[in-house]
């Protein structure tokens, strides 16, 4: 009996699938705050403009010159998760394209450059097509500090 129960649990357990609660929401748009039947259904992410609030109800305007009343608890200033996800995916795609473009630019000079001469110095052999901006900024700050210090010393020593 125990074996039959275990086999049944395995069969039932194997048939289950992971699932999630959807973030899609449908909100009824009403003609009046006390209407019971919606005349239109709005889905998550529909942009609205809050025109008026009466208790728990908000009068909203839509981009297509339509409008009506709905419960204020369904209105938020935050973008829905789906819209934020789509924007993040678009930004990630753009960053991927920029990285690929930069990688092609970095590879092009290396492939077309002649091999270094046997007698060249180590600095000449170094292939660094992308400048080290941190080093450049540090160098500029040091030079700027030196110049500023020299000018200040000149004026203080003169007086």
Explain how this protein is built.
A hairpin with a 2-residue loop joins β3 and β4 (57-62). This protein has 4 helices and 5 strands; from the N terminus they run αβββββααα. It has helices spanning 2-15, 81-112, 122-125, 133-158; strands at 26-29, 40-43, 48-54, 57-62, 67-71. With 159 residues, the protein is α+β, with helices and mostly antiparallel strands. It has a 3-stranded antiparallel β-sheet, with no helix packed on it. Strands 1-2 form a two-stranded antiparallel sheet. Among the domains are: 26-77, SH3 type barrels (Roll); 78-112.
Question: Which spans have pLDDT < 50 for at least 5 consecutive residues?
Answer: 154-159
Share of helix, binned? 40-55%
How many strand segments?
5
Question: H/E series, N to C?
Answer: HEEEEEHHH
First-residue to last-residue Cα separation: 105 Å
Shape: elongated
Strand arrangement, major sheet: 3-4-5
> Which value, in Å, is the CA radius of gyration?
33 Å
| Corresponding CATH architecture of the domain at 26-77 | Roll
Q: Give the structural class.
A: alpha+beta
Strand content: 15-25%
The first-level CATH class of the domain at 26-77 is given as: Mainly Beta
Question: What's the mean pLDDT score?
Answer: 75
